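To whoever is on call:

I kicked off a structure prediction for a single chain this morning and the downstream step that reads the tokens threw a length-mismatch warning. I double-checked the sequence; it's 122 residues and nothing unusual in it as far as I can see. Pasting both halves so you can look.
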Amino acid sequence: MEQITYITDEEREKCRRVADAFSEMYELTDVVVIDTGKYGFVKLQYYREPQGFEVMTTFKDSKMLFESLWQDWFEEQILMAVLGTPMEELEYEEIYALLPKEKQDELMEKKAFFDNCANSVP
């Protein structure tokens, strides 16, 4: 019987580095990324008792995984910056545009940090 591989070893290693780069987010949110071997990586989100995670997304491409995790991290940071204010009703892009330039730069520097961590070869 032929063994089917859904993700290459090279892409699996890249996805592992991406998942590791965002490890700080897993402690702060209900997002976690799991290595599922030959099937790729699964992002689990929105944990609810007793049923478990509400959203499960499978990734076999490290760039797509990076963008998904970056979006989650970015939205969490944007929301935390305006929580409890009338601005929390705005779209994320609108909130970002209203943030001070220093905060915008800080967020983009963090994206570069994540990218650097995800693309560094051990």
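Update from on-call: the warning came from a stale cache, not from the record. Cleared it. Sanity check on the structure: The chain has a mean pLDDT of 92.
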